[in-house]
Amino acid sequence: NRRPSKMNKGKSYPDCVRFHEKNNSTVFAVTDQQGDVVAVHEVFLDKNAKEIGRKTTGSPELGYVRFPGKEPAKIYEGEPEDGMKIWAETGQAVLVDVSKIGDTIHG
pLDDT exceeding 90 applies to what percent of the chain? Predict the structure, then answer.
């Protein structure tokens, strides 16, 4: 098990989540069964941390955003922020399928 990374305000987040300071975005790694990154789902934020768009790069249908925790893992289809909330509230492992989320930012 890898140690969680640190984001703002000293809170611990799992390896699948990072904050991209230059883009002012939250980045979620989509990994396959072997742990290889197959896609990245990025949520862009305004200066008040409100969502202004999202984009997925890669092949999200090949994996999940994986939040570690108690097994069995819950499979959640939708926005990774909601999966992270389930993970934080329950301590349960959550696998988030982001493959059906459309991009709202292009380029």
Answer: 82
Q: What are the two backbone dihedrals, phi and then psi, of residue 48, each rounded to the nearest 5 degrees?
A: -100, 15
Residue 50 to residue 52: CA distance in whole angstroms: 6
For residue 106, pLDDT beyond 80: no
Q: With bands split at pLDDT 50, 70 and 90, how would you rate the model's confidence at 100?
A: very high
Show Cβ contacts of residue 21 under 8 Å, excluding neighbours closer than 6 positions. none
Q: What is the largest CA-CA distance in the chain?
A: 38
Cα dihedral 85, 81, 101, 106, rounded to 10, equals 180
pTM: 0.85
Residue 3 contacts residue 70 (beta carbons within 8 Å): no
